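Entry:
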Amino acid sequence: MKKNKLVLPVFLAWMTVVPAKAQEILTLERTLEIAFEHSPTLVQSRISLEQQQLNLKAQQASLKSQFSLNVNPFNYSRRNMYDNFNSKWYAIENMSSSASLGIYQPIKWTDGSIGLYNDVSWQNASNRTSGGKDISYNHNLSLRIEQPLFTYNRTKMQLRELELSLENAQLHFAIQQLNIEKNVTTTFYSVYQSQKDLQIARDEVDNQRRNASIISNKAEAGLVPREELYQAEVNLAKAEASLNSRLIDLEDAKDRFKLSIGMPLDQDFVLLPNTEILPVKVNTDEAVHYGLTRRMEIRQQQITVEKDMFGLIRAKSENEFKGNVTARIGLDALGGKIRGMYDNPTDNEEIGISLTIPIFDWGAKRARVKSTQLGIEATQLNFDEEQKTIALDIRQICRRLPVLLSQVDIQKKSVENAERTYTIQSEKYRNGNLSGMELQQYQSQLTQAQQAYTNAIISYKLELLNLKIQTLWDFENNRPLPGMPGDTPGLRRGFATSAPSQ
C-alpha cells in the first residue's frame, strides 16, 4: 500500500522534469470547464439563448419612440392629356420635392399609437399648351392617434411571448449544462475505473511475476513439482494478457471521454478524481420539495400553458367583433411664396370609428377554440405527470443512497480482508503449502474486491450527483446550486393563466 501512495508524487515529479511528454492532469472541475466551453450541444443552446435575448431587445426597442425622415429631393413628370370638351391635346409638366419628419410612439398599455408628422413640399406645375404656371409651397403639421377597440392587446401579448421564449431558452441552456455535467461526470468516472483496472492488472502481473520467479527457483532445486512452475507461467501469461486488455480498454475510454468534452484526440491526460466519501444525510420530504419547487422542467410546463392561453385568446379573436378609432388634428399652411404661406393657415380635423361585425363562420371559430382548450388540458395532464415522475425519482434516489453508502464500507472491508488473505496465502505458496491454482483463486478474489470497491465509490458519487440534478440542491454543502434560473421568483410561481389586458 505504501508503494501505491508513492506513485502519484513520483509521477508528478517526472512530468515536471520532462515537459515535452507531459500529460494534462484533469480534475472533475477542470473537465467540466472544458466541456462547458467546447460542447457542441451547449454551444447551440448558447446561440439560441442569444437569439432570444436579441429578439426581446429588438421588441422592447420597437416600443420606444420611432423617428423617421423621408426625403424626395426632386421629381419630374410630363404627360400629354386630351381635353374632350375643347377637343384638343395639351401637355402638363410637374416638378416637385418633399420631405416628411415623423415621430411615432406605440402605446403598450392600450395597443394604440400616437404620431406627430411634419410634411413640407414644393410643386411647380405648368401647362405648356396654355402657358399656365403654378408654384406652391405647403407645410402640414399633424397629430394622429389610432386605438383598437373590443379586442385583446396584441403588443403586450407579443412582448410577453418573447419574454417567455427568452426564459425558456435560459431554462433549456441550464438543463443542457446539467445534462453535460451528468454525462461528463459519468465518462470521467468511467475513465477513472479503467485507470484503476489497469493499476489492479499491473499489481496482479507484479504478483504473478514474483510468484513465478520463486517457484522457478524452487523447481530448479527440486523442492516443488515442475507442474507448479508450468501453472505459475500460465498464471503470469493470463495476467499479462489481462494487462494488455485493460490498457486497450483505457485508451478506448480516453478517446470516448475526449470526444464527449471536445478535447483533441491527440491530447494525453491523466485523471485525478476526488474519491473521498462524505456521508450525506438527506431528508426525503425536503428533497421532493426542492425538486417540485426548483426543477426547471416544471417551469417549462408552466410556460407552455401560458403560451397555450395566448393561443386560446387568438383563437377566440378570429372573426371577432372589434373596432378601431382614428383621429387626426392638423395645421396646414399653403402659399405661392414661402414668406406669405403662414399668413392664413388652416386647421383640419378628422375622426372616425370603424367596426368589424362577424355574422356566420360555419363553426370554424368554435372548433379552433375547442382544439386549443384540449391542447391546454393535455399540457396540464403532462404537468401533473411530470410532478409525479420527479417526486418518484427523488424518492427512489433517497432510498438508494444509504444502501450505496453501506456498500462502499462493505467493499472497503472486503478489499482489506482480501489483501490480508492474499498475503497469508502467498506466504503458504512460497513455502510450498499451496498450489498455484489455489493461489490464483485468491488473486482473483483480491482483484474482484478491488474492482467492486471502485465501482461502489463511483456508484455513490454518481447517485449523489443525480440527486443534485433532480433537486437543484447541493446536499453535500446544503445550499442551492449557484447560477440556476430556479433561483428567480418567476420559476417558483404557479400556473400563469392570466392574459394581456383586452
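The domain at 23-55+157-309+367-491 is CATH 1.20.1600.10 (Outer membrane efflux proteins (OEP)).
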